[in-house]
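This part of the workshop introduces the protein records we will be handling. A record pairs a protein's sequence with a compact description of its fold. Comparing a sequence with its tokens is the quickest way to learn the format. The record below serves as our worked example for the rest of this section:
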Amino acid sequence: MSNEMNLSVQALARKNVQELTPYQSARRLGGNGDVWLNANEYAIAPNFELTQQTFNRYPECQPARVINRYAAYAGVDPEQVLVSRGADEGIELLIRAFCEPGKDAILYCPPTYGMYSVSAETIGVEGRTVPAKADWSLDLPAIEAALDGVKLVYVCSPNNPTGNIIDPDEIRAVLEMTRGRAIVAVDEAYIEFCPQASVSGWLQEYPHLTILRTLSKAFALAGLRCGFTLANSEVIGLLMKVIAPYPISTPVADIAAQALSPEGLVLMRQRVAEVTENRVWLQEELEKCACVEAVFASDTNYVLARFTASAAAFKNLWDQGIILRDQNKQPGLSGCLRITIGTREELQRVITALQALPGAGAGAASINEKQNSPRKEHM
């Protein structure tokens, strides 16, 4: 009886959901580590105390204090800000608002963040890919050729998992070719590590531009699940039609507002400086490891590196309680692992473990010299 019931439930599900592979988040992948460097989190928990003590009433849909503080921080008007359950909800809201299931498509450029495809597939919207070029820049002619039926283009800058900033001229070219045709969502989840690269100042020029932000990275609040979409008021109005009635809870709004206070912004920038210093150290130490073939430039809180035997390196560290993120299945990232920038002590454990692993007869530096790849590597 139970088997028949299970079969009928499966049959009731939408076909695309039956066949869907869910996003493999760091927590879903598991592990029993004590050094977690696989989710691009900040390693040390910040201190907050709840100032709101009554929870019997529903929260504001868009808490004014959070919206106003984020608008001031981002340099936009409050009418251009929407707060949601992480930037992941923003990704999904855009698809729900602008894409007709079974008819429209989104476009993105792998290797990149996996939630674009998962959200589209869940909703029943085609996920169309235009692979990035060998140096991880955008293939502009291929994007333009693939725009038929596309309502939404995602560009991740800095890009996860490669760590590179997308050339602003390339983003501008995408915005120009999509005028009147599609929304362009620039995912700036890691923009605090390279604020000069933000396109938030372009909103007035491009009515179809949207920008995704989060408190999960530089603000050290991944567990809070609080993100933002920046867009012109017309786009925000459409997103407000499809967002849940109470997207963020009162405690989330309370802590988010504290994080966006003048004092909170000072602490955030101190974290960015610390992470940047640790990242440079890690890149330099990785280049000395015989098992590392290439260390790629990064403007984020993580480093991507190519290993001579990445599966063995990944498992060796996993067995020692050091959890990295395997990127082998991403297009063009064979042999690559992504390492979140943790504390100096955590990163030293990574380097100590990698130093014990054999290479392919040469150190990273000499191997790098032989490579013909145009990708920029940390020097």
Remarks:
- The CA atoms of residues 276 and 301 lie 7 Å apart.
